[in-house]
Amino acid sequence: MLYRKIEPIISHYFVSRNDKVLVVTGARQIGKSYIIRYCAEKFFKNIVEINLINDSEGARLFENIHTTDDFYMALSAFTSKEMGSPDDTLIFLDEIQEYPHLLTMLKFLREEGRYRYVVSGSLLGVTLKKSSSVPLGSIDIIKMFPLDFEEFLLANDFGHEGIEMLRGHFDNLKSVPVGIHNRIMSLYKRYLLVGGLPEAVNKFIETRDLNQVRSIQQTISDLYQIDAAKYDVEHSLKIRRIYSMIQSNMENKKKRVIYKDIDDKKSGRASEYEEEMEYLLSSGIALGVNAISNPKFPLSETSRKNLIKLYYNDPGLLTSALYRNNPIPVLNSESGINLGSVYECAVACQLAANDNILYYYDNRSRGEVDFLYDDFENLSVVPIEVKSGKDYKRHVAISRFVDTEEYKIRFGYVLSNNNEVEIKGKIRYVPVYFSLFFDNRLCKNGPVLI
Q: DSSP assignment, residue 271?
């Protein structure tokens, strides 16, 4: 089984006295149902799993449920399993976005307390954004992502102790020994090819066959676009168009979405595509990075949502689109091929998985920096520049950024595939896999007493 960092979070919910309904959101095929099922089997004697897409295509037992009594009757018609108390019985409502009215009912099911409940869905993020009756006081929402590089390392027999060793080198700004660095970079390049979709990772571990991995990735990419087609006729074509443009945008100098290109207009505004962008981000199939021109902590106060870069939610999907079944550009770092967009995509996925809201720096006079994140410990902003080639010390924009006194920047990072950790002024040169530790996850260090 693949280790997922979300597992202890879900397990803690199941054993805690928190009676809120846990809601797990995230893109299709990232392992939500599997990990919920795995954790539930450790703590509950009775588990009833209801896939509401299957129900909508079959008996439709839950389609017109409007009271808790109706729900319990449908539940008894769905299964003859023995039911118990909240201590030993869990009801798992999967793909709940198929019946949005059940989201409203979660409040009343929780209040009655007959059983424990957990909910997930592949387009649930979209439904939650659109619904006006989400019982926010009765649910806890957590977002799940494909495997990040830490989880990929663990899946490939690089142990927890090794990762803690890396964390120590990051914390102390020490270079990783060359042999270990080479081992990690070998796995990192394979992560760029395989990505973190669980089925693709499992197939890679089983066969090491990139052709079979690519077949899985293509199927999932097609499913993302099929889901978009179901959204609604007016917006689905534009959603698919924007999604298909991510690859080409990544190869442009600015990388951001050019709205006039979506419909081949002479001009285009961000306001014309708000629903389409919301779908891509809320469904989890794309990551959005908003522009900041005047960075101040916290970054959310100065974000410009009309200037946005989009990344795939998984680096394997990007390399599949760019290089198909040829691994050589990534494995051999071909000098004639710019891997900058691939490295950036992987870093964006890592930052998102570590609960960072994604921003980039865009200033006409000072240039552009790939990523910014909030440093909550020091109440500051940290810039990140991602480099894939040997000229990683050429970086005019981030140098100007850290030297701008009004920004009050303590330090910035340049990530590359070089193992040497160096500090020059406010710039820290570190290996790209140190992005593992740019971590803003809540509660990662235990309780904060005030």
A: G
Helix (H, G, I), strand (E, B) or coil at 413: strand
Does the pLDDT value for residue 399 go beyond 90?
yes
pTM over 0.70: yes
DSSP labels, 285-323? SEEEEEEESS--SSGGGGEEEEEEEEEESSHHHHHHHHH
**Cβ–Cβ < 8 Å for 413, 375:** no
Give every strand in the sheet of 116-121, ordered side by side.
46-51, 89-94, 116-121, 21-25, 139-143
Span 361-374, average pLDDT: 92
Computed on alpha carbons and rounded to an integer, the radius of gyration of the chain in Å comes to 23
Q: What is the mean pLDDT of residues 282-310?
A: 90
Give the model's pLDDT for residue 249: 85
Q: Pull the structure tokens for residue 399.
A: 């140098």
Provide the CA 275 distance to its chain's centre, in angstroms: 20
Q: Is 226 helix (H, G, I), strand (E, B) or coil?
A: helix
Distances (CA, A) of 251 to 188, 195, 248, 330, 351: 21, 19, 5, 15, 21
Does the pLDDT at position 191 exceed 70? yes
Closest of 146, 99, 94 to residue 122, by C-alpha: 94
Higher pLDDT, 198 or 237: 198
- Peptide bond before 298: cis, by omega within 30 degrees of 0? yes
Burial (0-12, 13-18, 19+ Cβ within 10 Å), 234: exposed
Count how many Cα atoms sit within 13 Å of the Cα of residue 53 in the half-sphere of its side chain: 9
pLDDT of res. 376 = 87
Q: Please identify which residue in the block is written with the tokens 């006409």.
A: 364
As a whole number of angstroms, the distance between CA 367 and CA 383 comes to 13
Cα separation of 145 and 152, whole Å? 13
Which range has the worst mean pLDDT, 205-209, 273-277, 322-326, 336-340? 336-340
The DSSP-derived string for 109-132 is HHHHTSSEEEEEETTHHHHHHH-S
Our measurement of the distance from residue 124's CA atom to the centroid of its chain's CA atoms, rounded to an integer in Å, reads: 14
Are 343 and 415 in contact by the 8 Å Cβ rule? The answer is: yes
Residue 411 structure tokens: 């330090």
Question: Angle, nearest 10°, between helix axes 315-323 and 340-353?
Answer: 160
Cα–Cα nearest to 283, from 329, 230, 234, 330: 230
Amino acid letter, residue 326: N
What six digits make up the tokens of 444? 């990662």
Which residues are paired to 371 by β-bridges? 384
Percentages of the chain per state (helix, strand, coil), in multiples of 5:
45, 20, 35
Cβ–Cβ under 8 Å, residues 385 and 429: no
